[in-house]
Structure formats: C-alpha cells, structure tokens
Design goal:
It is a single chain. The protein is α/β, with parallel strands linked by helices. The protein has one domain: 3 Solenoid (UDP N-Acetylglucosamine Acyltransferase, domain 1). The strands form 4 sheets. Strands 2-5-8-13-16-18-19 form a 7-stranded mixed β-sheet. Strand 10 and strand 11 form a beta hairpin. The termini are far apart.
C-alpha cells in the first residue's frame, strides 16, 4: 500500500527538475557577526522580553538597552516597543529620529539612520541576501544608509546596499533596490523618484 501511494505522489509531482542549489554546502563560517554567540543570545533574550514589556512611551529605556549592547543612538530618539534589531552593535541612529512599530533592522551589515528621520511601521531594512547563482547559496551583505530628514513611510522594503539621500520621502509599501537621491519623493516597486520635495514655510 505504501509503495502504491509513493508511486501516485511521484507521478503527480510538479517538481520535475533537479535543484540547482545544494544547501548542504552553505557555509557562513567566515562571516563576522561582531560579537560572540553567547552575547548575541543574551541580546535576543533581552530584546524578546524587555522591549515588548516596556511601556509605549518608555523610549529612552529602549535606547539605553540598545546603547548597552553597542548601538550608537543619538539624543531624543524614539523607538517603539515592537521594533526589532538583529545586531544592535551594527546600528547607528542619529538625533531626533523615530523608529515605528514592527520596524525590522536586519542588521547583518551596518545600518545608519541620520538625524530627524522617520522610519514608519512595518518597514524592513535588509542588509543581507544570497547569491542565487552560487550552488552553495553564499551570503551577501551590504550596508544601508538613510540620510538626514528622510521619511520612509509604512511597510517599505529596503534592500542591501541602498542609500536614501537626505530629505528624501519614500511612499508607503515601496520596494527600494537602488539609491534614491536627496530631496526626492519616490514610490513604487521598484521605487523610483517622482518629483522634488518642497517645504512649506512654517506659520509663526
């Protein structure tokens, strides 16, 4: 009976080609995570417990924790309790910037956020990928930089190696695979610049 079932499954399978990738050959032993394994595990435990259990407006406490684990965090930075940082020692966030709920800093490589930036909820900053032309699916990393005064709106994906220029605006649910020049309003998947950001004069 088992053999008959196996033959039926095999005859109806849609997978007809041999895999080009051999994940048994995957090796990231040469990758430097920046801290020993025990330190990383402690950080993940602290983040899993302390971040979500801290009150919404206890941003300074979360900034303190990030600094404690090696992040460079400026003054008056706002970080929501559901934001997540893979390796905080590879993250720098300058003065007065805001990090929204459920933002993920997949900081396998460096991430630098300038001053007065807003990274809105559910955005994903991804500094690592894989070489899909490599049989061993080798790891590829590249830093992300977001300039002063930039706004990344909700649910955006930022790919490895991307720089978003000073004062740029990225529209909601955009996928950014290439650099965005300074002061450009851009959106889409892939994200492309649409027009120059112009500021209104403040009413005093």
């Amino acid at each position: 009976m088992t053999a008959e079932i196996d033959r039926v499954v095999e005859s109806t399978s849609v997978f007809t080609h041999k895999s080009l990738v051999d994940l048994s050959k995957y090796d990231q032993s040469s990758f430097d995570r920046g801290r020993p394994s025990w330190f990383i595990l402690v950080w993940w435990l602290v983040q899993a417990l302390a971040f979500p259990l801290s009150l919404h407006n206890f941003s300074e406490f979360r900034c303190w924790l990030l600094r404690l684990f090696g992040a460079k965090i400026g003054k008056k930075v706002v970080i929501r309790p559901t934001a997540r940082f893979t390796y905080p020692w590879k993250v720098a966030i300058d003065d007065y910037s805001w990090i929204g709920d459920n933002v993920v800093f997949y900081s396998i490589d460096r991430i630098h956020i300038g001053s007065h930036c807003v990274i809105s909820q559910k955005s994903y900053l991804c500094t690592a990928s894989h070489d899909f032309q490599d049989e061993a699916f080798g790891l590829i990393t590249a830093p992300i930089r977001i300039g002063n005064g930039a706004w990344v709106a909700t649910d955006c994906f930022i790919a490895p190696g991307v720089t978003i220029g000073d004062n740029a605006v990225i529209g909601a649910r955009s996928s950014i695979f290439k650099d965005i020049p300074s002061q450009q309003v851009a959106w889409g998947s892939p994200c492309i610049p649409k027009y120059v950001r112009e500021m209104k004069k403040s009413v005093t």
